[in-house]
Design brief:
Elements (H helix, E strand, L loop, with lengths): L1 E8 L8 E4 H5 L3 E5 L6 H13 L25 E8 L2 E8 L2 E4 L6 E4 L2 E8 L3 E6 L2 H12 L3 H7 L4 H9 L2 H12 L2 H39 L1 H4 L13 H66 L1 H17 L3 H25 L11 H16 L2 H39 L1 H79 L1 H6 L29 H39 L19 H22 L2 H54 L5 H45 L5 H6 L4 H25 L2 H8 L5 H64 L11 H24 L4 E6 L11 E6 L4 E4 L5 H22 L7 E5 L7 H13 L6 E5 L3 H6 L3 E5 L6 E4 L8
Parallel strand pairs: 3-14, 3-15, 13-14
Antiparallel strand pairs: 1-2, 1-4, 4-5, 5-8, 6-7, 8-9, 10-11, 11-12, 15-16
Length: 1017
Amino acid sequence: MRLHKLTLTAFGPFGAAQEVDFDALSSAGIFLLHGPTGAGKTSVLDAVCYGLYGAVPGARQSPGTSLRSDHAPVDRPTEVCLELTVGGRRLEVTRRPAQPRPKKRGGGFTTEKAQSWLREYDPEQGWKALSRSHQEIGEEIGGLIGMSRDQFCQVVLLPQGDFARFLRADAEARGKLLGRLFDTRRFAAVEERLAELRRAAEAKVKAGDEQILALAQRIAQAAGPVAEETALPEERPGEPGLAEGVLQWAAVARSGARERLDIARCVLAGAEGRSSAARHALEAERELARLQQRYEETLRRAAGLEDRRAERDRCHEQLARARKADLVAPALDLRDEAERAHRAALGARERSRAGLPAELAEAGLEQLAGRERELRAGLGALDAARRAERRSREIDAERSGLERQSRSDEELIQEAAEWLAGWDTTHRTLREAVETAQDAATRAEQLAGLLDPARRRLEAARRRDALAVQEGTTAAALTTARERAVDAHEKWLALREQRLRGIAAELAGQLVDGVACTVCGSAEHPAPARAEAGHVDRATEEAALVAHRRADRARADAESELGVLRERLAAARAEATAPEDGTGATGPADRAPVSVAELRAVVDRLTRDHTDAHRLAAGTHAAREALAAAEREHLGRLDDRQRAERRAAARTSQREALDREQGVLRGELVKARGACASVAEHAELLARRAGMLADAAEALRAEQGAAERLKEADGRLADAAFRAGFDTPQAAAAKLLGDTAQRELQHRIDAWQTEAATVADRLAEEDARTAAAGPPATPDAAQAAYDRASKVLRDGAAAHAAAQERSTELDRLSRLAESEVRALGPLRQEHARVARLAGLTGGTSVDNERKMRLESYVLAARLEQVAAAASARLQRMSSGRYTLVHSDERSGGRRAGLGLHVVDSWTGRERDTATLSGGETFFASLALALGLADVVTDEAGGVRLDTLFIDEGFGSLDDQTLDEVLDVLDSLRERDRSVGIVSHVADLRRRIPAQLEVVKERHGSAVVHRSAGTLSG
């Protein structure tokens, strides 16, 4: 991996955009990153880490901290752009953190989300975009580099303070650092996984043992007293031998339960025999007592029958008389019905005669019928009069209709005359409206052709004014750019001349004793030139040249921009002053500039005129339709007036004919109405009188018929009473009983007869008479004997059932226990195997002699590789004195396998790295860091790291050691590596010409590049 360029904007202490050219710095192999405290040296490294991983190292990425510079203006976004080559691909990563920005609408700020861009350079197509996803970019960069952020920070940024602490740390601290670098979490995960498997297997075994013990408790509960004879096994869950002891104890319990079951079976058989004999004796005594009680009850029921015999005879006689009276009941009902009908007919006759005239109050049936026929005949003679009256009403209605039509036609004729009187004026007005709308349409088309050019001139005038203002601003900027370009050119020429005057001192600075001079060829340098005060080096001259070229490019850009603006301004002026006929603008002979206000007034006037003309033109169709409608109405009114006049002449003759017919009908109606107001009223009066006579005649006929039926019913009733044996009908009616009363009497008689038959049958029973003749029965004594035998039987059956259930339950629980023991066998084997592996990887097994965990074993192997790689550089830095060796000895209670010792070749003794001095600790930690970088690189898949950074620690070295350390670092160039040293040591600024200086300023820090040369001695 090689870094090419870093651009950071509003990042950390850098308020403005800063660019770091790593290609220029790396050309010398070693470059120095220096600057005052707080200037932002570490921020440059943070920007590299942020560009790659989207986060900065360590606590600087903690919550609440911000990467945005406080020196940057609010509208300048924080951004880091890193260009690098990794895996043979040239990439550019641009990242922006989440940061506040001003709202586009309104005041205040809003938080903008973090953004990322990834591009790749193609020699044929140039830069092409790959992704804008944080996750995809992180996976792509991480896969190419092959290291996590922590590994990158330890391997590429090489924090020497951390490795100094690593040398003095104990095994636990070293293990944590190495674990982060080499990502041995998978081995720790293996340890934890095996421990979890061991705990899980142990929990399963204990759970199985607890299940077996629970079954043993259930067996003891089911065995009852048998379990008290033998105690449960004393082993606890998880201990060996528990399962076998439970099975043996269960077998003993089952044997005792079977013995108790045989005893209970024998006792139950004897109790069943005694209970059966007692039951038979009890049944015999109960049957004897029942027969004796039955005979006594029969005697009591026979005496009661004799007491109720007189009542039974009375009910029998009453029922017989009621049944004879039932034969007379139909005649009684018929006579009552005839009497009710006769009374109703008498009432109806009296009501019908109340409305008749006095002379007809006592009239007979023939007289009433004759009078009715006379009235019916007079009613029929009124039909012709009804038709004449109906025709008279129709004539009146027709005359009313003629009057209405006459008034309507008169109004129509008058309205038509009034309308036709103003027809000439209306026709002329409508014709003028059509002509006005047609003229307005022509005017609207003309104004539309003038409005668009006027609007274009107005827009051109607005652009002209805006471009004129912009031209003045751009011209002022061009003047400033020209002045700056002249100043930069003069400054560069002055610095170049000053450097040429002191070039001898610069060449003398490259002289080395014993090496021929590149100018004179001499190997001796008795009096090399010294640099005077204010000497200008090559880097300063090149910086001035770059500033001159930048200023010259800015001047050229300003001139180009001004030329483009002036061309656009000329085009706008030409368009704004173009002549427009008919608009009031300037003509061909007058091309003076026209103001925006004047052109806006012209456009407004044309717009208003066009709107008015268009509005009038829109009424053309409506005006034509109105004219056509008026002409149609004129013809229609003339036609309506002529038809109305013809209808008036026809109505006069029709009215005269109706008057003649009405006179004839009125004479006929006067005769037919008589004293009534109308023929219908007269007919209604006759119909009402005829109806009254008909009702009176019918009522009289009904009364005579009812009297005949009543007389016939009286005769039938007397005959029926005599045949039934009663002297009078009233005597028969007195003996009548309802159906309910008769059923009640019959029920009493039937009940007495049924009881008599039952008593006779029971008195005839032989076994009852025999039982009654014997001694009284004793069922209570037999019941007591049976209860005692039943209790003994129940106790025996309960004991037998309990013994049977206990034996069955013990068999079932024993089978369950055997099944649980068989199922637990593979779990015990798995637990033994997993526990052995967990103890071995966890360092607690007797087979692990050094008590070293698996992760520690892997880290010890990595530390041994790091120590071997570091020793090669440490020997050179210490002039062959020191060598780092790995130790896997266990000291005290600390972790074994992560010991680190230094071998001193001067004394031949091995000692702990914590005993090294400050300077020795520095180059030992530097050697360790470089060795660790090599090992981690190989661990990451052999990704080449062409750019490294070393942070501080050089101030603790003497001159000789510093030279040796720099030689080691300079040897890294053999593999085309570049090393950046971050240090405050002033001597390094003299020894390392290629420098990146971070300058601290009031408005934010800035970076300055110094020229790179060969490493001075």
